[in-house]
Amino acid sequence: MDGQILVISGPSGSGKSTLLTRLFQEERDLYFSISSTTRSPRDGEIDGVHYHFVSEDEFKNGIDNDEFLEWAKVHKNFYGTNLKPVLQALNDGKIVIFDIDVQGFNLAKQKFSNYITSLFLTTKSQSELKTRLQNRKSETEASIQNRLMNAVGEMQHIKEYDYFLINDDLQSCYDNLRSIIHVMRLKSSQIKLRETIDEWIDN
Ligand code: ADP
Ligand code: 5GP
Q1: What keywords are annotated for this sequence in UniProt (predicted)?
Q2: Are 72 and 41 in contact, with CB atoms under 8 Å apart?
Q3: Residue 120 C-alpha to ligand 2 middle, in angstroms?
Q4: Is 131 touching ligand 1 by the criterion CB < 6 Å?
Q5: Which of 20, 50, 85, 96 could anchor a disulfide with 45, C-beta 3.0 to 4.6 Å?
């Protein structure tokens, strides 16, 4: 498999979706791993685009049938990465983007460590995170409190990731994310060795 995986984790509200939406408009050969989740869609979220929104029974069937590369319970809902499309995209040589939590990252590493580059994203402060969650207007106060509490736990894992970005100024954070994609494309694992050497000899 010639493809690679970029795992992006970080507190809910840190800006992962915002950055990824733009990245997909501007970069080629990326594939977004559409997770399955038991949580309800937010305004503007489309089934099959942002997530596969499923019932708890459907999700549990998926677990029983080994359909998930990893799965976890986050903020009281189930979330899982669908294995089959990821394998297909890796075979097609794509950079596959996983927007998953810290638990999912650790599970994915057990199976796909050679393929993974990882990035932890956060805001400049907890109060900024709270403001953004409130501005998103999709969460109840209890859900915001739950996400803020989880965020503190997630931040303990920053050093397990290859890269760390603070999403303060959106443009500069986006530029840094794009740089990470560009560097991934320069990895020696990405070259076709035989063809590269043959071409080098011939020229
Ligand atoms: P996540 O996908 O990590 O949960 P979102 O992308 O939904 O986070 O972003 C949460 C909210 O913060 C959204 O309303 C988004 O428009 C806003 N946002 C994202 N990045 C920034 C930024 N750099 N500055 C200000 N607001 C931002
Ligand atoms: P949200 O509900 O804000 O979309 O996502 C909540 C959290 O679940 C985020 O930290 C997000 O990265 C994580 N998440 C989304 N999909 C998956 C998945 O398939 N597996 C795991 N482990 N976490 C996920």
Answers
A1: ATP-binding, Cytoplasm, Kinase, Nucleotide-binding, Transferase
A2: no
A3: 13
A4: no
A5: 50
